[in-house]
Design goal:
The chain has 407 residues and is of the alpha/beta class. It has 2 domains: 104 residues, Urease, subunit C, domain 1 (Roll); 289 residues, TIM Barrel. Helices cover 39% and strands 19% of the residues. The strands form 2 sheets. It has an 8-stranded parallel sheet. Bound molecules: N-(iminomethyl)-L-glutamic acid and fe (iii) ion.
């Protein structure tokens, strides 16, 4: 069925940003059309332009009048850990009172704390808690969400978590696009002498099983001192490539362990965090198709310094921003809030900001057919009840998104 949204105050098409592959953007790359109309069917955008120029073939179709609204490419949160049990609010307080994230983790808190919380829930309970979280995230206008497994941390529970994500993907398919990322390599449980044994007993065999079931969209690993090293990361990437599953990594968060370089060398979809990435890593990303995903909420939440966003952008890297929503290092599920607060600190221009949470975050998930409002791309939009785009990030923390369902 062909649909028409007419009289939008603005459509932020990001067409120019799309043509520039999301790199080296200037404010004009938002490619705004004022008083605009868009025509689309279930699969693709058929026409977009000023309302006055609507081709006659579409003028008889009953249109939704969206005057007083702005349409953007769909908001994409490309990095979340939504499947978890329990809560780590006390760790936030401990940090305020002087403890450090790594020290808390070493004392039995951190990811291993959530492992216990996750293992104490049934598959149905994990599904239901995640379902509610996704509904809330979707209410902010986010239409695509990447979800990582990684709090089960044993063969059976990780298998179950990947299947819970698959159930959520099917449950939400008409409303929210879910990307299922396998991240059993999130932390090494205490019973394993090192990451090597955990890799060979759990991470690699389970990837084989899930690879054969074809339910995984990407794999990820916490490539960090005290977690998984470069050899583990390369092993995981090599196995994923046998199943044609794209790869991602959490890298250079606490140290410059050359994780960005390894990710770029393996054509990873993205490498994320990057607080300590050196000039060589930034250069490697700029020359690659790997998206540099920055997670400012984590720095805010942990009281850590932020990634050097400007250096990645100026070098020509493709930069995305994601929430990193998880129970420990960033318990904030609102991507637009996090990105709006971060933008002045990162010194982003307005096109860099919007590309980071739409076009480039879609590319970080291998979704090359969305991220701009352009003929032939998927009709994946977010709509805000404002008359100009500036108002959305200006009013940070206020939810101005409206649901397009049932319009
Ligand atoms: O992306 N860095 C690794 N994983 C999460 C932290 C998860 C946790 O603390 O529970 C992150 O920040
Ligand atoms: Fe993460």
């Amino acid at each position: 069925m062909v649909q028409v949204y007419k009289n939008l105050s603005q459509i932020v098409t990001l067409t120019k940003a799309f043509e520039k592959d999301g790199r080296k953007l200037v404010p004009e790359d938002l490619s705004i059309i004022n008083n605009a109309t868009v025509v689309f069917d279930k699969n693709e955008i058929l026409w977009v332009g000023p309302s006055d120029n609507l081709p006659s073939e579409y003028s008889e179709i009953e249109a939704k009048d969206l005057s007083g609204h702005v349409l953007t490419p769909e908001l994409v949160d490309s990095h979340t850990h939504v499947i978890f049990g329990g809560n780590r609010s006390e760790e936030y307080t401990m940090r305020l009172n002087g403890a450090d994230y790594v020290a808390i983790a070493n004392a039995g808190g951190g990811i291993l704390n959530t492992m216990n919380g996750t293992n104490s829930l049934s598959s149905d309970e994990l599904f239901e808690q995640a379902r509610q979280r996704i509904e809330r995230i979707h209410s902010y206008g986010i239409g695509t969400i990447e979800i990582k497994s990684g709090y089960g941390l044993n063969f059976d529970k990780e298998y179950e978590c990947s299947h819970v994500i698959n159930r959520l993907k099917i449950h939400f398919e008409d409303r929210v696009q879910i990307i299922n990322t396998y991240m059993a390599a999130h932390a090494v449980p205490k019973q394993y002498p090192s990451s090597k044994e955990y890799m060979s007993e759990v991470v690699l065999p389970l990837l084989k099983k899930l690879g054969e079931e074809s339910i995984i969209d990407a794999v990820d690993i916490f490539h960090e001192q005290g977690y998984f090293d470069s050899e583990d990361t390369q092993q995981l990437f090599d196995l994923a490539s046998i199943y044609n599953i794209p790869v991602k990594s959490h890298a250079d968060e606490f140290n410059d362990n050359k994780g960005a370089i390894l990710a770029a060398k393996n054509n990873a979809l993205s490498t994320d965090h990057l607080l300590c990435t050196g000039a060589d890593g930034i250069e490697a990303l700029a020359k690659s198709s790997t998206v540099a995903t920055l997670l400012p909420g984590t720095g805010f939440f942990l009281g850590k310094p932020q990634a050097k966003a400007r250096q990645f952008l100026d070098a020509g890297a493709k930069v995305a921003i994601a929430s990193d929503y998880n129970p420990g290092s960033c318990h904030c599920d609102n991507l637009l809030l996090v990105a709006s607060i971060a933008a002045p600190h990162y010194k982003l221009n307005i096109a860099e900001l919007w590309a980071a949470i739409t076009l480039n975050s879609a590319h970080a998930l291998n979704l090359k057919d969305q991220g701009a409002i352009k003929i032939g791309l998927k009709p994946r939009f977010t709509c805000f009840k404002v008359s100009k785009i500036d108002e959305v990030t200006y009013s940070w923390g206020r939810n101005l998104a409206i649901s397009l369902e049932g319009l």
